[in-house]
Amino acid sequence: MIDPVVATRGDVLATARTQLDLAKLVLCDVDGCLVESDALCAGAAAFVARHGERLRLVTNNSTMTAAALSAYLGTLGLDVPAARCFLAGEMALAYTRDHYPGLRVLAVATLAIRRQAEALGLHLTDARPDVVVLCNDPMLDIERLQQVITAAHCGVPVIVANPDRWRPDRAGTPLIETGTLLAALRAAVPRATVTIVGKPSLEMFRRALEGVSPTDAVMVGDNRETDVAGAERLGITAIHIGRSREAIAPQLLDLMER
Amino acid sequence: MIDPVVATRGDVLATARTQLDLAKLVLCDVDGCLVESDALCAGAAAFVARHGERLRLVTNNSTMTAAALSAYLGTLGLDVPAARCFLAGEMALAYTRDHYPGLRVLAVATLAIRRQAEALGLHLTDARPDVVVLCNDPMLDIERLQQVITAAHCGVPVIVANPDRWRPDRAGTPLIETGTLLAALRAAVPRATVTIVGKPSLEMFRRALEGVSPTDAVMVGDNRETDVAGAERLGITAIHIGRSREAIAPQLLDLMER
């Protein structure tokens, strides 16, 4: 990341633009970068158009499938095929399929993600699971949360889509994310066996790189802990935008040539 | 508390029995001491009979009223009038009435506790509360939890019945308690304004003392953090029983004369 203390704001933005232009692959977060409260962020359309096929979206979204995200972005005027969308929820399913083949899975997730789980061949169950997948679920009730706690207490591993504790709506109000549910789980079962799959886990970035070297990629995101730290640990240059004081610019618009 | 390292187990129990006999007031926890998984713990009936009117129950229960707890204990053969039962949930309501008179209250609580709130004159609301009361609620859904998070984010104070993260069922499985919900709240809103009312808060013990000096009272409980530490901070002698290694005996039966 560029040090905003020793460089002027103009220098920093110019360097970021050059890095974006030179990159073989541009990774970008979705919530808070491209979209907020179901509306495009300033510069999102131009950013997506500019980077075209070099662009991959890397999001801790755990409620949608890639196909649904692509379609949703389409309704907002952004053209990003599903094959270029990498989502933490889907990745948690793939991780579970790869690491716990054939076992019974309790999935805390939206109907869309549970259907996707079945499409991937996962054997979903409500009782006595061998593994738990914890995604964000706006329909979660406390009975289901208790099932997760009971399973974790019995030593069942829990695959968590992402560690985000909240995501902001447009007014900045924190909306419950998977990490809030994880905090509840850890309060009840401190010794729970937890694997986090989404950003900042390296696996998430590795999948999105798809064979491109980390040094040939740039990640743009608004979250210091998940987007920036995660990418940099893998050697990917990170560009931090958003409301945070550490961000080099408030929005994607600032990364576009004027 | 008696030091179990320098005294033999027999000495320790004899001292505890003497302390109980000499006390003007015997305070006792409910879950894990008198009752577990809807059955009496060993020695509970004899303990309640022996201490009679000197006995007060001090529990972090936030789902029942004192009247309901008294009636429930009656079904198990324990005679403890409601006036001698002090519950964290009811206390959170009383605290709210005293400190936020006339304001609109969002109560996360069972129907019984919400009815009790109305009986106390609290003005319950679902939207735009001035204060939140957070009790345990087996019917809680994520939408209601989001309402709490949104309110706390907007600076609304949250009165939490107790900090217990779980309570065990008979098999030792952790069941969700108010503290699990508090952990979720704090994950989403780290700067939430939180007041905890139940044990180990001193207010809980002060109410149960009812004018008796702390040095004339003994507290029996199975939780080091809430029962023992809370009582001792107020100068009440605490007798720690239960499964913990620090406990002087597994159950109330061991505190009775043979």
Describe this structure in words.
Two copies of one chain form a homodimer. With 258 residues, chain A is an alpha/beta fold. Chain A folds into two domains: 9-60 and 200-255, HAD superfamily/HAD-like (Rossmann fold), CATH 3.40.50.1000; 89-196, Rossmann fold (3-Layer(aba) Sandwich). Helices cover 36% and strands 19% of the residues of chain A. Chain A has nine helices and 14 strands. In chain A, the strands form four sheets. Chain A has a five-stranded parallel β-sheet, sandwiched between helices. In chain A, strands 7-6-8-9-12 form a five-stranded parallel β-sheet, sandwiched between helices. Chain A has a two-stranded antiparallel sheet with strand order 2-3. The longest helix of chain A has 14 residues, at 9-22. The radius of gyration of chain A is 18 Å and the shape is elongated. The mean pLDDT of chain A is 94. The A-B interface holds A 137-143, 145-146, 149-150, 153-154, 165-166, 173-177, 179-184, 186-189 and B 137-143, 145-146, 149-150, 153-154, 165-166, 173-176, 179-184, 186-189.
Overall number of domains of chain A: 2
DSSP summary: helix tally of chain A: 9
Helix content of chain A: 25-40%
Low-confidence stretches of chain A: none
Instruction: Give the strand order of the largest sheet of chain A, numbering strands 1, 2, ... along the chain.
Output: 5-4-1-13-14
Shape, principal axes of CA atoms of chain A: elongated
Q: Architecture of the largest domain in chain A, CATH level 2?
A: 3-Layer(aba) Sandwich
Q: Identify the quaternary structure here.
A: homodimer
Q: Estimate what percentage of residues of chain A fall within beta strands.
A: 15-25%
Ends apart, CA distance between termini of chain A: 22 Å
CATH class of the largest domain in chain A: Alpha Beta
- CATH topology-level name of the largest domain in chain A: Rossmann fold
The CATH superfamily of the largest domain in chain A turns out to be HAD superfamily/HAD-like
